[in-house]
Structure formats: structure tokens, C-alpha cells
Design goal:
The complex is a heterodimer of chains A (482) and B (94). By secondary structure, chain A is of the alpha+beta class. Chain A is built from 15 helices and 16 strands. Chain B is built from three helices and three strands; from the N terminus they run ααβαββ. Chain B has helices at residues 5-14, 21-42, 73-76; strands at residues 62-63, 83-84, 87-91. The chains are: A alpha+beta (482), B alpha+beta (94). Chains A and B meet through strand 2, helix 1, strand 8, strand 9 and strand 16 of A and strand 1 and strand 3 of B.
Amino acid sequence: MNNKYEVVIGLEVHVELKTATKIFCGCKTTFGGDPNTHVCPICLGLPGVLPVVNEKVVEYGVRTGLAINAKVPNYSKFDRKNYYYPDLTKNFQTSQFDLPICENGYLDIEVDGVVKRIGITRAHMEEDAGKLVHSGKTISSSNSSNVDYNRVGVPLLEIVSEPDIRSSEEAKAYVEALKMILTYIDVSDCKMEEGSIRADANVSIRLIGAKEFGTRTETKNLNSLKALQKAIEYEVERQTEVIEDGGVIEQETRTWDDEQGITLSMRSKADAHDYRYFPEPDLPPIILTDEYIDNIRRLLPELPEARKKRLIEMDSLSVYDANLVIAEKFLADFYDEVRKSIDDPKLIVNYLMGDYYRELVAVGLDFSSSPVSTKDFSELLKLLQEKTISGKIAKEIIPLMVKDGKSPKVIVEEKGLVQISDTGAIEAIIAEVVAANPKAVDDYKNGKGNSIGFLVGQVMKASKGKANPGIVNELLKSVLDK
Amino acid sequence: MSITKKDIIHVADLARLGLNDEETIKYEKELNDVLNFMEKLNELNTDDVEPTSHVLDIHNVFRSDVVEDSLDVEDVLANAPDRDEDYFKVPSIL
């Protein structure tokens, strides 16, 4: 990019809340399903129906607001956002305009070790729209569209950032941080591939040092972190080129074409947003008492940042290790549970992120789909700590644990994998190895200290990996130095 | 504040209404009458009145998050102008 310019980005992130039913009716919110089977007169917008707000949506909205450091006003209401597009049958979307469920929050993100605060203007509740399946190859080349209204009315929270983001990396870090919090507070699955979290990117550029923002474009429906980054990078390059060529950026809505890797103009300026919002007459306002809000605050789980701080300060984990553990709530909870019985944080992290994680990846599982319980995982580490098994044996046991969820104790017994720490038994093996390898023994005695490594290896091999390596080393040394 | 012919055409366009010249003149007058009436209401002193966003004095009408039956797909599509299997079929928009 031309370094004369500064990039200014604001993101609107749409999050599907994980309620069982839609925001204004009892239809289920399950992803997919045969087309037009999760709909009723209310979400189809048939005349004469009365929408009623799902109380869980309000609760999740408040919970999110508190988790993103926002203010939750006592008074909130819904409005109609009017537009014509077949993704909604009513010709308006029920949303919130001037009195959203929360306002004025922020998130701290980290890029290249630098922490930066991104302001959050607001978060408001609204209904999702239906899905258009286009018959042609691209939107513009199709003659007709097929519409599936199953998704209409799935509760969304639209979280709007301030234009505080300055690069595609920061945009990615912001969405990742947001995703992490939303998963921790359990209000959304945040499955980008199923569209349960999608971003619109408002992008503009301006000369470095300029006070005024440049004209922005809005690129819609970026449903992967990669698409988000690539679309922003493309827009920055495109806008730079237009301006460098003496042109003017038009304020417009654009769409991301993943196949071609470019953004395309969707709506012209003539059609500029004129949504004629007005208060939704079918939905009475929402009044939240301080008590209600405080109750939700009290029940908030420990958030990722606090958790990271605790792991670094209390468990002396490195920033790197702490980041690994908190990246997924399931993993962080798993760690905490194991930590209750294992007093060695570093050992836990080493095994979680090392041999165990490698095995999960190898068999195509992840932490949450693995059959290994916290109890069995703790037991494995206990066996290691008590030196009943060696690290080498642990490596053999882990795949068996992952394969059929068996307890490590059972595996050790069944396979006879208990580590040999009995000095008598080890001395016998050493005697054999020493007798069979006179050359290595001579080398050692002639000052080639490293030939002891070869002898240790032979002893381990003869014991089928079961000898305690520490004891082998010690005993072998004393035999050779005699 | 008054509404001009340009406003009428813009609003009609947003509402996807095609108005002829006669209708445009008619609605320009009618909508201006409505606005004038609002101006009249504005003469009232409402300093001590809370803004109203809903006509009824009720709030927090909620339902619990419990799944109910959806419609049968044939009923869903009964009034569709056109369908393609179980989808609503609409003219391409963009």
C-alpha cells in the first residue's frame, strides 16, 4: 500500500444468538433444515400477526453489553427499518434505531504485542433475514432467485465499532477478540462457516495527518476472517488507486467476490440508505431495572482477559502459554479442572498443547470433541508425576486414550507399561548391555563421555522403553565409573 | 416546513409507487395538510410530557424461549406468486 495514506476501518459484526427459538416467534433457530420449514405466520410477516419478544434475546443482549464494557440503558425499544428486498417479506426489518440495548463499550485487542482499545458505539437487537439462492453463477448474472425464509427472525445482535481500526490485521484481531468473548459468555456459537457471525466492513483512506475521514464504502457479509482481511486489503488498494488517479470515492455498498478476490459495487449512491426508521408499534418498549442488569452482571463468567491475567499471575504461565490456554473456552475450563488436582501448571500446558493436541489433530478431533475426560487427563499427569510411567510411555498411552476414551491406569495395566524404577531389575539389564557392548564401554573409559548416551539408549531399548531414564542414567554411570 | 414535489417523488420512489402528475399534485397537498396539522399540535406545551414511543402504557411483553410448531411447507407456499420446489421464486433483484 501507498504509505501516504492512513486506513480507517469500522466494523459491524452480526452475531446470531444461540436461543432455541426466533426473536419474535416460537419457530426454531436450527441452522439449515429443508427450505421454508422453520417458518410461521409471524416470521413470514402475514397480515394481522403479533410479534412477541423472546426474553432470552434481551438477556443475551444485556450479557453481551456488559461483557464488552458497554452501558445498558434502562429503556430500550424496537424500530422498523424500511427497505425493499426479498430477504424479508414485510418490506421492513425489525431492528433498533435510537435506543439500542447497549451503547459505548470497548474491546482491547493485541497486534504484534501492542495493545489497542477499539471503541464500540453500540449493539442492537434485530431479526435476521432470509437466504437468497441465486440461480446464475453470480448475483448479477441470475434471472431469478429462490428464497428460503428459515433464517428470518433468528435473533441477531449487531455490534458496531467506532472507526478506530487502522489495518486488516487489527480488524481480524478485533473480530477474534469479540468471538472469544461471545463464546465465553455463551451467547453465540460464533461459527463463521455457518454464518452465525458475519462482518460488514466500512473502509476509507485519508492522507496521513488529515483530520477529516475520507468517503467510505461498506463491504457486506464477510463470513470468514480471511474474507474480512482480503476484502479490506482489496478496498484499500482500490481506493488508493482511484484517488491517485485523481478520482473520487463514491459512498456505496459493495459485495465481496471470494472467487475473484475483489469487491463489487452493489447499490449506487442514488439508492443511498433512506430507511425511514420509525418506532415498531407492535412491540412495547423494554424497561430494564438496575436490579435485572446487576443480576446478569453478577452471573457473568470470568472473561478471557481476566482469565489470562490469572494464569500469568497465579500459575506463572508465560504470556504465550496463557494465550494458548484461553484461546478456547472449552480448553480453558479443561485446564482449570485438571489444575485442581495437578499442582504443576507448566506440565499441564506442555501435555495439553504438546503430545495430546498433536494426537487430536492427527485423528481429526479437537479439544471439545475428544473423548478424554479431565479426570483421565489428570490421572495421566499423576502417573507421570509419581514416575509410574515415563514421558515416552505417556506418548504411547495418549493415542489409546484418545482412541477409545480409556483411563490411562487401565491402559497401563492392560499393556504392562508401568515404568521400571526397581533398581535391581534395571541393574540386571545394565549388566547385559555392558557385557554386549565392550567397545562403547571402552570409549567411555577412554574419555568419550558421549558414548554413555548410546548405552542409555540400549538399556531403554532392552527394557522396551519402560526403564526410568533418570535411574538408568544414574546406575549406568556408577557401573562405568567403578 | 413544507413538502415539495421533489419530496413526493422521492418518497413514492422509496415506497415503489408510480405516481402520475395529477397524483403527485394531490399528495403534495395532502401531505402538506398532514404536516400543517402536526405544526398545530406543536403549539401545545409538552415540556412536562415524556416522549411516547408506544401508544399503550405497557412494557416488557416477553415470551419464553420455547419451540412451537412451524407451518407446513405447503401452507407456507400457498400464497406464493411463484415457487421453485419448496422455495419462493422471485425475480432477480440486482
